[in-house]
Amino acid sequence: MPRWFYQLASPRWCYQITGRLLPGFAIAALLLLMIGTVWGLAFAPPDYQQGNSFRIIYLHVPTAYMAQSIYLTMAIAGAIGLIWKMKVADMVAKSCAPIGAALAVLALATGAIWGKPTWGSWWVWDARLTSMLILLFLYLGVIALNSAIESESTAAQSTAVLALVGLVNIPIIKYSVDWWNTLHQPATFKVTEKPAMPPEMWIPLLIMVIGFYCFFAVVLMLRLRNEILHRERRTSWVRELLLQMRG
Amino acid sequence: MSAFQTKKLPEFKPDLESESFSPGKILLATLKRDVKLAFRRQSDWVNPLIFFLMVASLFPLGVSPEPKLLSTIAPGVVWVAALLSTLLSMDSLFRSDFEDGSLEQILVSPQPLYFVVLGKVISHWMMTGLPLTLMAPLLGVMLFLPFEGMGGLVLSLLIGTPTLSLVGGIGAALTVGLRKGGVLVSLLVIPLYIPVLIFGTAAIEASLTGLPVAGHLALLGAMLVMGLTLAPLAIAAALRISVSG
What we know:
The structure holds two protein chains of two kinds.
Chain A: H1 3-8, H2 11-43, H3 57-84, H4 87-119, H5 127-148, H6 152-166, H7 169-179, H8 199-231, H9 236-246
Chain B: H1 23-40, H2 43-62, H3 67-90, H4 92-99, H5 102-108, H6 113-127, H7 129-142, H8 148-175, H9 182-209, H10 214-244
Helix pairs in contact in B: 1-6, 2-3, 2-7, 3-7, 3-8, 3-9, 6-8, 6-10, 7-8, 8-9, 8-10, 9-10
GO biological process, one term (chain B): cytochrome c biosynthetic process
Family (chain B): Belongs to the CcmB/CycW/HelB family.
Keywords (chain B): Cell inner membrane, Cell membrane, Cytochrome c-type biogenesis, Membrane, Transmembrane, Transmembrane helix, Transport
């Protein structure tokens, strides 16, 4: 194991390093999201079939990506916490759940808004939508379980087991559009192929996706730092830090 | 020498080769114990069955008593009712063992937990899933399900309900240490039940329309195999966490 992996286990070190990384990610997120939004909503060419209504893709695709990636992050952090009994990993997993749930709601909401003009209805019970809804339910289950258990370490371990069990759903969402014949269009980006859209349409989308990843990093770090301070509130370094802050 | 020095206990060496450690024996012993316990406390397995019957009879009263409509919604209604009554019975899987302390004894015993858990889940299925499956044709008749659909109904429930017990066991194990587990178990487990529900009802629909059923049943079977191999591991891990916390 490399040294930084062990250092991550120390809440204090983690608090310091996230404090240093935070401004960079915040600026990157702000810039990328601004550029992506303006480019996507104002300057990208309209779709030949869907006209301007397709522009919601610049919010829908990134939020849907994030909802899945955050679940994966949560499950991996939970597994690390279970295996190496790493407190910081437990805190990362706990901080991920509400962010992921919020972005899953956004993905479903933007999807519904997009579905109305293109499919003629807010909601269809097809594979992609249903599996995305299950993902939201899984997030809600994780949050409910975490808040029901009083002991922090037991809560972290139990939710990690639940998150790992729920991991079964991620490949189902990912490949639902390939496995089943559904109304939902296939994936926008694939690693092996060129996107079906012209570059002036997919470049802003890519910028939005990267921007959302940075945004997630920022929110995660903020929540994580809060969680560290809360759990370590009895240690001397947190007390000193709070005294310094008060001046 | 101090007066408090205790006699040294003989070292405990489990004879792992002995008969009592063979997986089959452990599984069978757990199964026998749990089935016997269930028969002594009949409300545990009779109540979910009555619930199953009651939920299904709500639909003709609540939606419409018209046979044509009922026969179209019958597969889904029977499956949802089966799923809910399995959920209802899930809490009893580990609860009484946890309360009287025998769960802790199981956890500290040298026998592999995997087979004990598997035995408990199989006995749970024998007391809930199996009776539900056997009673399902009656509900099918009540809801005007055509005769062609009966085979699909029974087969899909027969393959699907063990998966429900296995997956529900994970939820029950995660919440066994909590005083109020009831609603929480449902929140944790229902999302994981959805795939079973989809393929279960799809199998009945297929048999109604004369399409091949084997594909849906094979997928249900695949889920069952995956549940049988992986769910006991998750249940065992969850039990250790819940009981130690």
